[in-house]
Amino acid sequence: MRTAYSVQTVRAAETELMARLPQGALMQRAAAGLAAACADLLGRVYGARVVLLVGSGDNGGDALYAGARLARRGAGVWAVPLGARIHEGGLAALLGAGGQVADDPFEVLAGAELVLDGITGIGGHGGLRPDAVPVARAARGSNAVVVAVDLPSGVEADSGEVRGEALRADATVTFGTYKQGLLIDPAKEYAGTVRLVGIGLEAHLPSVPDIEALQHADVAQLLPMPTGESDKYRRGVVGVVAGSARYPGAAVLAVAGALRGGAGAVRYVGHAAEAVIARFPEALVHGGPPSKAGRVQAWVVGPGLGEDLDVVQDVLDSDVPVLVDADGLRPLDPSALRDRAAPTLLTPHAGEAAALLGMPREEVESARLASVRELAARYGATVLLKGSTTLVAAPDEGRSPVRVNPMGTPWLATAGSGDVLSGLAGSLLAAGLEARDAGSVAAYLHGLAARHALTDGAPITAYEVAGALRSAWRDVRESG
Ligand SMILES: NC(=O)C1=CN([C@@H]2O[C@H](COP(=O)(O)OP(=O)(O)OC[C@H]3O[C@@H](n4cnc5c(N)ncnc54)[C@H](OP(=O)(O)O)[C@@H]3O)[C@@H](O)[C@H]2O)[C@@H](O)CC1
Ligand SMILES: Nc1ncnc2c1ncn2[C@@H]1O[C@H](COP(=O)(O)OP(=O)(O)O)[C@@H](O)[C@H]1O
Ligand SMILES: [K+]
């Protein structure tokens, strides 16, 4: 599991730790780890040309002290001050070690092998300021390897937003813990390869992180596996209520996902039975209401239903876990959902989430983490918010971390891929996973399947993603 903490939590832990250490010790630990990582990247420090982009805060201080360490080992190091202030101790250390302040930032950047981006870290907001923009562009346009100190400058540490321009790094050296933005797009994409340097903060962080991301081994542990005692009912039956005369494809795609989620059987209920059976003879189909379709261990309701929404209530009246997606999200009543005894999993995209929260879509897009938490609290349901970084939150007032999906790919932004995801997650629910696990494992496998389907670099269809779920499953099992 990869875990991350909010800036507020990091600062609280830092305060606790600093109270026990001599002044400046923490920054020295950070700088030592940073300099070691830079030395690894450079291969040869002696004679290397290093440029430090230095903002007004401690992030700049880290860069200056790391630069001093590299200068002592024989690198040529130039600082480019970019703030109204500069970390005085760090600057003195750099100058004392033989480093210099650059006369012309663009000239030193043109010859640099390594650029340390210390403009802003967890104290930065609102993208790079105008005077830093041309310098950051010159750094990116040079042949140098760009290493971000703690975080790429210009990104929001907590939300992962990039509100203006940010400096794209080849690698990021982060201190003490991952920051939330390092796991959430678009900031995540700016970070390059992330290296975590221990500075003793770990012991002062709460045991439950603010957010976490599954990795292969975690997913492998959660996958439902049949045993000698299994039969198709014990493996779980998932009911899929999806599709309509107008949108039969949604039913086919949701069933395709459900068949690859590990449940023992898929029961389809709705008006697209012919289309479903034509593709999947193994599906059980039923034309009446869901409540009369026979026993299931979990329901999926919503994809492609169009206006035929009475079935949503029928399914919610059941006493089994229910996943609600797409059209099914329209008639939801928060208080009725909160009263359900069995778990409910909602899987909106940003537009649907905005409608559920009664706010503009842009507000959800710009505060995805806050939005998914708010939705889970308001509806008393686990919520999987789809999009560039899929997030899954449980309705437990922050007792469990929000799961961030590390496996997405923008190629998934193709019609019908959400239907595959809902079938898949519903199948995992029927197989007995908790709602937060079912949602996050489904998002992981879905993203991984898309990557597998993408082998030749050409666009993929939702149906192909469903087809690649088997190889995603295998990939996770083999390395888990
Ligand atoms: N916490 C820890 O455990 C440890 C923390 N450590 C390090 O400290 C870093 C945090 O340092 P920090 O608090 O001084 O904040 P930091 O990110 O340097 O920003 C400072 C100032 O920048 C400015 N500014 C704001 N936005 C801006 C923008 N868009 N573009 C340009 N400037 C902008 C704004 O000042 P202003 O100019 O508005 O007066 C703001 O106050 C952390 O990331 C890590 O590297 C390690 O040393 C050890 C362990
Ligand atoms: N930019 C993106 N990057 C990664 N994944 C994305 C992006 N945009 C959409 N997705 C994923 O694609 C799927 C689209 O689902 P959805 O919006 O329900 O579409 P549909 O209704 O056509 O099936 C979701 O799994 C979502 O997380
Ligand atoms: K930085």
From TrEMBL:
<comment type="subunit">
    <text>Homotetramer.</text>
</comment>
<dbReference type="InterPro" id="IPR017953">
    <property type="entry name" value="Carbohydrate_kinase_pred_CS"/>
</dbReference>
<keyword id="KW-0479">Metal-binding</keyword>
<keyword id="KW-0413">Isomerase</keyword>
<keyword id="KW-0547">Nucleotide-binding</keyword>
<comment type="function">
    <text>Bifunctional enzyme that catalyzes the epimerization of the S- and R-forms of NAD(P)HX and the dehydration of the S-form of NAD(P)HX at the expense of ADP, which is converted to AMP. This allows the repair of both epimers of NAD(P)HX, a damaged form of NAD(P)H that is a result of enzymatic or heat-dependent hydration.</text>
</comment>
<dbReference type="InterPro" id="IPR036652">
    <property type="entry name" value="YjeF_N_dom_sf"/>
</dbReference>
<dbReference type="Pfam" id="PF01256">
    <property type="entry name" value="Carb_kinase"/>
</dbReference>
<feature type="binding site">
    <location>
        <begin position="58"/>
        <end position="62"/>
    </location>
    <ligand>
        <name>(6S)-NADPHX</name>
    </ligand>
</feature>
<dbReference type="InterPro" id="IPR004443">
    <property type="entry name" value="YjeF_N_dom"/>
</dbReference>
<dbReference type="InterPro" id="IPR029056">
    <property type="entry name" value="Ribokinase-like"/>
</dbReference>
<dbReference type="InterPro" id="IPR030677">
    <property type="entry name" value="Nnr"/>
</dbReference>
<feature type="binding site">
    <location>
        <position position="250"/>
    </location>
    <ligand>
        <name>(6S)-NADPHX</name>
    </ligand>
</feature>
<feature type="binding site">
    <location>
        <position position="153"/>
    </location>
    <ligand>
        <name>K(+)</name>
    </ligand>
</feature>
<dbReference type="InterPro" id="IPR000631">
    <property type="entry name" value="CARKD"/>
</dbReference>
<keyword id="KW-0630">Potassium</keyword>
<feature type="binding site">
    <location>
        <position position="304"/>
    </location>
    <ligand>
        <name>(6S)-NADPHX</name>
    </ligand>
</feature>
<feature type="binding site">
    <location>
        <begin position="121"/>
        <end position="127"/>
    </location>
    <ligand>
        <name>(6S)-NADPHX</name>
    </ligand>
</feature>
<feature type="binding site">
    <location>
        <position position="419"/>
    </location>
    <ligand>
        <name>(6S)-NADPHX</name>
    </ligand>
</feature>
<keyword id="KW-0456">Lyase</keyword>
<comment type="similarity">
    <text>Belongs to the NnrD/CARKD family.</text>
</comment>
<keyword id="KW-0520">NAD</keyword>
<feature type="binding site">
    <location>
        <begin position="386"/>
        <end position="390"/>
    </location>
    <ligand>
        <name>AMP</name>
    </ligand>
</feature>
<feature type="binding site">
    <location>
        <position position="59"/>
    </location>
    <ligand>
        <name>K(+)</name>
    </ligand>
</feature>
<dbReference type="Pfam" id="PF03853">
    <property type="entry name" value="YjeF_N"/>
</dbReference>
<comment type="similarity">
    <text>In the N-terminal section; belongs to the NnrE/AIBP family.</text>
</comment>
<keyword id="KW-0067">ATP-binding</keyword>
<feature type="binding site">
    <location>
        <position position="418"/>
    </location>
    <ligand>
        <name>AMP</name>
    </ligand>
</feature>
<feature type="binding site">
    <location>
        <position position="349"/>
    </location>
    <ligand>
        <name>(6S)-NADPHX</name>
    </ligand>
</feature>
<keyword id="KW-0521">NADP</keyword>
<feature type="domain" description="YjeF C-terminal">
    <location>
        <begin position="215"/>
        <end position="476"/>
    </location>
</feature>
<keyword id="KW-0511">Multifunctional enzyme</keyword>
<protein>
    <recommendedName>
        <fullName>Bifunctional NAD(P)H-hydrate repair enzyme</fullName>
        <ecNumber>4.2.1.136</ecNumber>
        <ecNumber>5.1.99.6</ecNumber>
    </recommendedName>
</protein>
<feature type="binding site">
    <location>
        <position position="117"/>
    </location>
    <ligand>
        <name>K(+)</name>
    </ligand>
</feature>
<feature type="domain" description="YjeF N-terminal">
    <location>
        <begin position="10"/>
        <end position="207"/>
    </location>
</feature>
<comment type="function">
    <text>Catalyzes the epimerization of the S- and R-forms of NAD(P)HX, a damaged form of NAD(P)H that is a result of enzymatic or heat-dependent hydration. This is a prerequisite for the S-specific NAD(P)H-hydrate dehydratase to allow the repair of both epimers of NAD(P)HX.</text>
</comment>
<feature type="binding site">
    <location>
        <position position="150"/>
    </location>
    <ligand>
        <name>(6S)-NADPHX</name>
    </ligand>
</feature>
